[in-house]
Amino acid sequence: MPTMAVTTSSPGLTIPSLDVVITTLVSHYLLSFFSIVSLTYVVYQRVFAPLAGVPGPFWASLGKGWLIARAKKGDLHRELIKLHEIHGPLVRIAPKEVSVADLDGIKMIYGAGSHFHKSDWYSVLKGHRTFDPFAEQDPHVHAAQKKLVIRPYAMETLKDLEPYVDSTVYHFISRMREKVTQQVDLGKWFQLFAFDVIGEITFSKRFGFMDTEHDDGSLKSVESTLASAAWLGHVPWVFWTHDYLKPWVGNWLGVTNRTGSLMQRALKEVEERKVRGTDRNDFLEKFFRLQREKPDQVTDVAVISMAAANITAGSDTTAISLRAIIYHLLLHPEYLDLLRQEIDTARRERRLSDPVTMEEAEKMPFLQACIMEGLRIHPSIGGLLPRTVPPGGCVIAGTFIPAGHVVGTSAWVVNRNADIYGPDANTFNPTRWLKGNRHEMQRYFLTFGGASRQCFGKNIAFMEMSKMVPTFLRHFDVELCFPDRPLKEKNFFFVIQEGLIVNLTPRDEVAEGQANGGAEKEMNRY
Ligand code: HEM
């Protein structure tokens, strides 16, 4: 029987029963209560909160929903460019988070010795790992870890790694020669190359992706890690709640791959190497040498973690950069011609090896300019590099931002700053690196992060690109199959492109040289 019966006291007049009255009143008051709380919250965020005066999307000022939606859609970098064009140097992107395009502010946040430390966004990447320089938030722990493992990444040790990069570049070229009659997904091949080269320099063992033309799941693993971290980082409590409940609910988050399958791969390689030994001077050997010097501090966990970091931080990032450089050169034949001239002149003058050496590449100013410009126009990392405001707060672009709030800059925004790069900052123009104020341009160049937490692998990445780009272009004429179809891109912290499909034609002189020499021969000097 229904409980909410009504009683009729006289014809035409209906009196509700007591429980109906109570239910109606409660829902009415609850609704009013929530409306008042919500309204108060909106008024607070829009009028009284410390960041109320900072412009930005309406929904961003009220919660993390806007950021999460962008992270899911993968367009945060493009949105930030637009928003800064509209609003100027500061944009509020969450109730307590600001995107900064102000140059003094950027220097303050990322400069050497900065007190702005990595925000909680990174905690989801770190999880329970005890050794992880990339995601470490504590500056003292980070400094100690960096000191222990940075030596193998230094410029002086690059020479040891060069032959490993050479053999992988040569393998790439020989695989491309097999593809000259087909449409080639060059973007995918750069990714296979970038993973194989990391395998070679870290473990003296290519992963074999270029041989099989696909990977063993590692590419997906990195991608799902980043896609998941990109949104979870904005709500770390979701990650930690899931972490707590995992024994009962299972693993639902891709970000845990960073501590899962990739670590397992690194672990396997390290264990195998311990048994097998080696006479090669690759990364693993360099880490083992550090371990022999300080066995208590450079633990097995540290070695495995750094090997895994090479894969996650060094593969996709390099592939993205190679795609960007070649794609933009193909879109701008005038610059491609200039680069070809530089390559061909060096070759005619017998100043060019095959593959091109690091030393030779450094003497090619236009090549270096093209690499810098590709890195500028399409930085691999499109996320915000978020940092927590230190105690005492800070003033950026005349606005006070309290301690504990988050500030950050995407390289996509600052790398397009017209005050630094000129009025054509939005277009690919390598000549700016030859005639512009290079020092000033490099000072704010955020593609490899800020000085306080700069990329460990920058030198290695430059070595790979400096070899691959001229060697590839001396071997092939390259043409976009679909010049009118822009590449698709998705920002999952890394801004990954899709659709770099090309036709390759072998360049005759080189083809002859190679026919005589064989694809896998070491370094032929012409
Ligand atoms: C073109 C290629 C690359 C680009 C654009 C790039 C970019 C970056 C950026 C922007 C950061 C700072 C991230 C942040 O502040 O949150 C970073 C950090 C890092 N990168 Fe790279 N990277 C590249 C290649 C590599 C390679 C090849 C390796 C290793 C072999 C590597 C290892 C690292 C490590 C270990 C860190 C953490 C540094 C720290 O926080 O102290 N990267 N990278």
From TrEMBL:
Name of protein: Cytochrome P450 family protein
Annotated positions binding heme: C455
SUPFAM superfamilies hit by this protein: Cytochrome P450 (SSF48264)
Cofactor needs: heme
One example GO MF annotation: oxidoreductase activity, acting on paired donors, with incorporation or reduction of molecular oxygen
Keyword presence, Metal-binding: yes
Organism per entry: Aureobasidium subglaciale (strain EXF-2481)
Pfam families in the cross-refs: p450 (PF00067)
Residue ranges of the TM segments: 20-44
Membership in a protein family: Belongs to the cytochrome P450 family.
Taxonomy, superkingdom: Eukaryota
Native organism taxonomy: Eukaryota, Fungi, Dikarya, Ascomycota, Pezizomycotina
Matching PANTHER family: CYTOCHROME P450 (PTHR24305), P450, PUTATIVE (EUROFUNG)-RELATED (PTHR24305:SF232)
UniProt entry keywords in alphabetical sequence: Heme, Iron, Membrane, Metal-binding, Transmembrane, Transmembrane helix
